[in-house]
TrEMBL record:
It is a multi-pass membrane protein. InterPro entries: Virul_fac_BrkB (IPR017039). This is Ribonuclease. One of its GO terms (cellular component) is plasma membrane. The keyword Cytoplasm does not apply.
Length: 268
């Protein structure tokens, strides 16, 4: 059972491990890896049965309004360029995103109070493998709603219930997205720390990160759409500021998930 000591313990860990500073560092690496990843995904579109609109639908499920528009504008600029970007996108994505994974590993090691004993090559290879796995899961997350909708429309139209299916589709898309997020977070919390863990030890943090990230993204999106006036204050870079704040919130929640797992591991 979770009692008051749990919240006191997590609050103490946040201060001891300087979680806000770690989240800022992680948000920086997320930002660096985001656009190479976008270039890579857009360059793959001719080889996949999805369009850039499908990617935007997935992003708009969680990203604040200004950030989604910022992504859309950059995606359209990338689409106007030639296919030679694919090789650059692969290299840039693997390198920059693996730096982000390394930052996650350092944050989790700090939470578990362990040192990184793996060699630089092993740690970098692990980060690259995890990056490739996350890209694969992300592409799968894009493909599932596309094929799921087509398959659902086919089945339900045969039953004369196509309208009922379309009415529930948005909820189903959210459930698929949340399941994919939970799967990614579970793998991240299980593999990243330099500590032998059971996969069940990663579940508390994965549950928190999935629910917390979805709730924080929705709340921040609501705030930006109704109260935030970042474009008025910051002008043309308002979308970038919104993106940075969103990445910071995301990084903070991911690190807190690692702290929760470390807290329960310490108690055991």
């Amino acid at each position: 059972m979770i009692d008051l000591s749990f919240f006191r313990g997590i609050w103490r860990r946040i201060h001891e491990d300087e979680v806000p500073a770690l989240a800022a560092q992680l948000a920086y690496f997320f930002l660096l890896s985001l656009f190479p990843l976008l270039i890579f995904l857009v360059s793959l579109l001719p080889y996949l049965p999805i369009s850039h609109h499908d990617i935007m639908h997935f992003i708009r499920d969680f990203a604040p309004g200004d950030t989604a528009d910022f992504f859309n504008n950059n995606m359209e600029n990338v689409l106007k360029r030639d296919g030679a970007l694919l090789s650059f996108g692969i290299l840039a994505t693997l390198w920059s995103a693996s730096n982000g994974i390394n930052a996650v590993v350092r944050a989790f090691n700090k939470a578990f109070r362990v040192e990184e004993t793996r060699s630089f090559i092993v740690a970098r290879l692990m980060s690259i493998v995890m990056t490739v796995a996350m890209i694969f899961v992300f592409i799968l997350a894009l493909l599932l709603p596309v094929f799921g909708r087509e398959l659902g429309e086919l089945i339900f139209s045969q039953l004369g219930m196509k309208k009922e299916f379309l009415d529930t589709w948005n909820t189903m898309r959210w459930m698929v997205s949340l399941f994919v997020l939970f799967f990614v977070f579970t793998g991240l919390y299980w593999i990243a720390p330099n500590k032998r863990l059971k996969i069940t030890s990663a579940l508390p943090g994965a549950f928190f990160a999935t629910g917390g990230w979805a709730a924080a993204s929705w709340a921040f999106s609501f705030y930006v759409s109704n109260f935030g006036r970042y474009t008025v204050i910051y002008g043309p870079i308002g979308g970038v500021i919104v993106l940075l704040i969103w990445l910071y919130l995301s990084a903070f929640i991911i690190i807190i998930g690692g702290q929760i797992n470390a807290y329960f591991s310490e108690k055991k």
